[in-house]
Amino acid sequence: MKRFLVLCLGNEILTDDAVGPIIARRLQEIELGSDDVEVIFAPTAGFSLLDLLEDRVEALIVDSIITGTNTPGTIRLHDLGEQVPSHSLINSHEINLPTVLSLGRVMGYQMPKNVSVLTIEAQDVTTLSERLTPPVSASVDEAIAHVLRWIQQINSDFAIERELQPSARCG
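Below the sequence we write its predicted structure tokens.
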């Protein structure tokens, strides 16, 4: 299992909710610059995230969002501590991401120490369609650039962390 996870959530047939699967496919087609990063599309959330997040050091979750305050296509990077009104990260039969992480730790799972959420403001997540609305479609390349910067940052942080660790070959 790879240490770092880019987890793209959504539904491929619900208009802008398909932004997560589209980003996952695009990322899987390019060189990420790290053998330690796994990109996964998951059409689910809540309890099912436990197994996907277990044994990861860091995770970035990519999902659509509807705030009603941002224009469709707006991209934001959230720390886990922020309230993230993600379309996929909670519903009436599921639990939210912070609760998933807490529950995993209580159950003895090794959960990521850092989780960020990259959101793309959606215009429509209820219409059955495999096509994104124009403003969300126009934001896909920028969202991918955000993910690639996140990967570069964790690679850099991990390299520094390894350099700071005492060598196993003492003496």
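The mean pLDDT is 87.
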